[in-house]
Design goal:
The chain has a single domain (2-203), classed as Jelly Rolls (Sandwich). Helices cover 17% and strands 41% of the residues. It has 4 helices and 12 strands. It has a 7-stranded antiparallel beta sheet, sandwiched between helices. It is globular and about 50 Å long.
Length: 204
């Protein structure tokens, strides 16, 4: 868990901000292919898309947007990574801080690699929720930073959407904890819930 969110700092640093691709802003459907995952989403926020490139070894794409809230501009961003050919969704989900408990029929937080003291601390600031999109299902998790300068701490999001043998997962930041008005989670979820997996054969 800790290592995954350490990685997210580097990823988000490249997402907020990044150079927007040139596209017709009247078109809200954004199509992406990340490795073997082909999908699209509704960009109702006129955000910026970072497509897979040599700079990230074609391993992920990114999305960021700026929203005006109470007269102030707030930004958020997250990435899209592709996973495939897994036999159990928890093989993927645990890397993003969750696992599906079939007995309880719910998503629960996972803390791989964390010490007992770290788990005790993180449980207090971690929440998990089910997530569904056009034709995907999975979870999202939010977790508040508890270390570092208080006025620089943020709320992280991680998520996974599963569809057949594919999964789109990612990490991001959705809130500055020092400012209650900076909560961008509803806007991030608006994008994620619009994700639609596409049959790659239809695009060949």
């Amino acid at each position: 868990m800790s290592s995954k969110f350490t990685i997210s700092v580097c990823v988000i640093a490249s997402l907020l901000p990044f150079t927007a691709e040139s596209r017709d802003t009247s078109v809200l459907d954004v199509g992406l292919q990340v490795q073997s995952c082909v999908f699209r989403f509704k960009d109702a926020l006129d955000g910026s898309v970072n497509r897979p490139s040599e700079e990230n070894n074609f391993e992920w794409a990114g999305y960021s947007a700026t929203v005006k809230v109470s007269g102030e501009e707030e930004s958020f961003g997250f990435n899209f990574s592709c996973h495939s050919n897994f036999s159990d969704i928890n093989e993927v989900a645990t890397d993003y801080g969750c696992y599906f408990n079939s007995e309880q029929n719910k998503w629960l937080p996972a803390f791989p690699g964390a010490s007992p003291d770290e788990v005790s601390r993180l449980r207090k600031v971690t929440k998990t929720f089910p997530l569904t999109s056009k034709n995907g299902h999975g979870f999202y998790m939010i977790q508040d930073e508890t270390v570092g300068e208080p006025d620089r701490r943020v709320r992280h999001i991680s998520y996974c959407l599963f569809h057949e043998t594919k999964a789109i997962c990612g990490l991001g930041e959705v809130k500055r904890l020092v400012d209650a008005k900076s909560d961008m989670l509803p806007y991030a979820l608006r994008i994620l819930r619009s994700v639609e997996f596409l049959d790659i054969r239809r695009n060949q």
